[in-house]
From TrEMBL:
Pathway: Cofactor biosynthesis; adenosylcobalamin biosynthesis. It comes from Collimonas fungivorans (strain Ter331). This is Cobalamin biosynthesis protein CobD. One of its GO terms (molecular function) is ABC-type vitamin B12 transporter activity. Converts cobyric acid to cobinamide by the addition of aminopropanol on the F carboxylic group. The gene is cbiB. Pfam families: CobD_Cbib. InterPro entries: Beta-lactamase_Reg (IPR052966), Cobalamin_biosynth_CobD/CbiB (IPR004485). Signal peptide: none annotated. The lineage of its organism: Bacteria, Pseudomonadati, Pseudomonadota, Betaproteobacteria, Burkholderiales. It is a multi-pass membrane protein. One of its GO terms (biological process) is response to antibiotic. Keywords: Cell membrane, Cobalamin biosynthesis, Ligase, Membrane, Transmembrane, Transmembrane helix. GO terms for cellular component: plasma membrane. It is found in: Cell membrane. The chain crosses the membrane at residues 49-68, 75-94, 149-168, 296-317.
């Protein structure tokens, strides 16, 4: 049932992608905002309490509905699973940005590519050259794909999969929504949300990196993972980006002095204390790197689906 749920959800999303500004997401953001406004008095323990309130308020009903569907019949559980996976996946939420940037770069329209990248990443792209545009687009795509696809897959495989998938997506949003906005940055309230998502994402991030290594240049991917992942201040991003870059033969990340100017603090920022004279394997990103990223992501997705099919077959016929 798990394999069929993911397969049907992926097919539905390919036919009718769920917009990033859909009513369900808007309601979740509004609910999280109300909890933050009600609980935030500047202390970490209030952020911890607020985090549990949001997570439990959304995962417990999901689990109860799943339990009810299981007792109704397998078809009801399948429909509920498909709905939840469809709502929690984001395989095509932002793909239009990536595809449009790729098209603009391929046609030499750098100005349009900068505009689209600025809309997508909320960064100042005015002075970026083609290499920087390509690099940041690739990095954003790899991190977004992990958090909106592979991380959801991992937690959906857990017991009471729909509730776990919802938990992952909500935890990911709270880690961003309670830390990244200007009025929340460096506040104690969002500290627990960031720490909780780090541990929730610990295994999925490494499985995503392993999938990138298997379907790409395995030797360079593992070498980059082992030797260069710790250059990023965000450990999880460092593992995914260093491994993904090694798998594609693309040099991702920038020196600290450049990264501070063009990248957010939690994505692709290299720690100067970890800088070494040796560089990670790979070439400077070009527009072709975007096509390589598409291929890497699809191969990793097919690998996950193949392994899930084998697991499902072993359960069915075991």
């Amino acid at each position: 049932m798990t394999f069929l749920s993911i397969l049907f959800a992926l097919l539905i999303e390919q036919l009718k992608p769920l917009r990033a500004d859909n009513p369900v997401y808007a309601w979740v953001k509004q609910f999280a905002g109300k909890i933050e406004a009600s609980f935030n008095a500047g202390q970490a323990r209030q952020g911890r309490l607020g985090w549990f309130c949001v997570i439990l308020a959304l995962t417990v009903p999901t689990a109860l509905v799943y339990w009810l569907c299981v007792h109704i019949g397998a078809w009801a559980a399948l429909l509920w699973n498909v709905l939840i996976v469809y709502l929690t996946l984001g395989f095509r939420h932002y793909s239009h940005y990536f595809s449009s940037i790729q098209l603009a770069l391929n046609t030499g329209d750098d100005a349009t590519a900068r505009t689209l990248l600025a809309e997508w990443t909320k960064l100042d792209t005015t002075d970026m050259d083609v290499s920087e545009i390509s690099r940041i687009a690739v990095e954003k795509a790899l991190i977004t794909t992990h958090r909106h696809v592979f991380g959801v897959f991992f937690w959906f495989l857990m017991p009471v999969g729909p509730a776990c998938a919802v938990m992952y997506r909500i935890a990911e949003y709270l880690a961003r929504g309670w830390n990244e906005p200007d009025h929340m940055r460096n506040e104690a309230f969002g500290r627990f949300a960031a720490q909780a998502f780090y541990w929730i994402d610990w295994i999925p991030a490494r499985m995503t990196a392993a999938a990138f290594a298997v379907v790409g240049n395995f030797e360079d991917a593992i070498y980059a993972w082992r030797n260069f992942a710790d250059r990023w201040k965000n450990e999880t991003d460092g593992i995914i980006l260093s491994t993904g870059g090694g798998a594609m033969g693309v040099l991702l990340g920038t020196p600290l002095e450049t990264a501070i100017a063009i990248l957010p603090a939690d994505a692709s920022t290299i720690d100067s204390t970890a800088m070494e004279s040796e560089s990670p394997p790979g070439d400077v990103p070009t527009p072709r790197a975007l096509q390589s990223t598409v291929g890497l992501v699809w191969r990793a997705l097919l690998l996950w689906m193949f392994l899930l099919l084998l697991l499902s077959a072993a359960i069915w016929f075991g």
